[in-house]
Amino acid sequence: MKKVLLTALWAVSLTFFTQAKPVNHSPATDPDKPERPSIISDLLQYARRHLSVRYRSGGTSPRGFDCSGFTRFCFSRFGISLPHSSAAQHHTGVAVEKETAEPGDLIFFSGSSRSRSRVGHVGLITDVIGHRIKFIHSASGKGIRYDWLDASYYRSRFMGIRRVELTN
Fold first, then answer.
1. What are the residue boundaries of the structural domains of the chain, listed by start?
2. Which of 26, 44, 89, 165 would you call most buried, defined as having the most Cβ atoms within 10 angstroms of its Cβ?
3. Which of 25, 74, 90, 121 is catalytic?
4. Active-site residue 84, yes or no?
5. What is the spatial order of strands in the sheet that 106-110 belongs to?
6. Could you name the CATH architecture of 23-163?
7. pLDDT (tens digit per residue) in 104-159
8. Is 137 a catalytic residue?
């Protein structure tokens, strides 16, 4: 009897946890936010296809990307021109607060020194889950990968978020 009860409880728990999804505060799930263009989904899917491509200083192609070369490459696929430097991309679009960040926004960081006050790195936000922000970027020595803003390395260098107008 105990074995049957434990098996049933395990099955219910497994079903609950495999079907539960994190709350994603994106326009599609937040009725108070206007719908962003469906191009965002396509942009993020395109960016994900380049996971693990190697880092290459000044790189602008799937043979190797630097951070701004990667964001520029992804946006250009959808007819949106970005400059090829993270500092210049930081002047593109409009600034948004961390609390209103959405997938498809650009996220900016200082260079490798914490004391630097100049933008030196950029990524593309892929998920906003609660107050956590996940982004894809080309990391020096690591290539295209995901990271979280709340990791101490990125949190201490965070410089802002920009939203580039996207149209279908």
1. 23-163
2. 89
3. 121
4. no
5. 94-96, 158-163, 106-110, 119-129, 132-139, 143-148
6. Alpha-Beta Complex (3.90)
7. 999 999 987 656 789 999 999 999 999 999 999 999 989 999 999 999 999 999 99
8. yes
